[in-house]
Amino acid sequence: MALQRLALFVCLAAGSSMAMAAECRLSKLDDFPHKEIGNVPLHRHQPSGAVVFSSIMHVNPDGAPDAYHPDDIGTVHLCNGIRVRSTCAEDKPWISDCMADYRKARSEEFSGETPVCFFAMSTHNGVPLVQGNDDPKPGYFISTTHLKQPGEDAKRPAGQIDSNVIPFAVIPGTWLGKAEPGPQLGDMGIAYRRSTGAVSGFVIADSGPKRKIGEGSIALLQALGHDPFVIRKGKRRAFSGIGFHTEDNQKKPDVVYVMFPGTAETGLTVTQDRVRNRTAALMEALGGVAGLQACAAKL
Length: 299
Prior knowledge:
alpha+beta; seven-stranded mixed β-sheet
């Protein structure tokens, strides 16, 4: 039911033959130096101006009320949202095994004696905020997204873009405020999965590391036909992403991303319906599903 509810478009098998005749005009912009998979070519689509590229898709559960918990029973391991033994600066080394430091800092009531900082959760004076009885998941930390819901408290769950509900994508933090390649928080986009033909609209709702591109919310992965939840060490985690697809002896990243700069709607609440309606209209600028498939064939 979740997939039926979140999938915004359906690629029919007959569409593949249409793609053969469809036109897709792309001009090379740059190569993005992806830390894990090497250079990712970025293209500009004409005449829409969209930025088009192909990459893997890691899952980003941020913004979901059940993401982080003080006892590490959330859908995300606490170490994914914490830095220890360093400052909060992004250029400092991230330590994957943070729990000993975290437990010590927690026993000290996060007084600062044991350095720990939270970069994916709401805090007050360095102390992570916990959801109350009126919030969706009382007792859980408040997981945050860079994009906020207008008119809501930016530090509370209602102020975030819920990864469980809204299909969203992530851009590198270095893109924020830049004219090139152009996509910004709140802009709309479309994702296409080569292996299944699934298509989903999305909103850009978060920013990430400067050398990673290709990250989506839980809802976006589900809309593309992938279940990101796995059992790891007895806990249900949102961990599994979408990797590569091999076709005609060619191995390519499975997901094609199309991002439309300048399509953000300020002051409007981000909902499933708004994302669906906005991106359905933008599909026409690509020539529909056939045009999207034609672009994918060029990447």
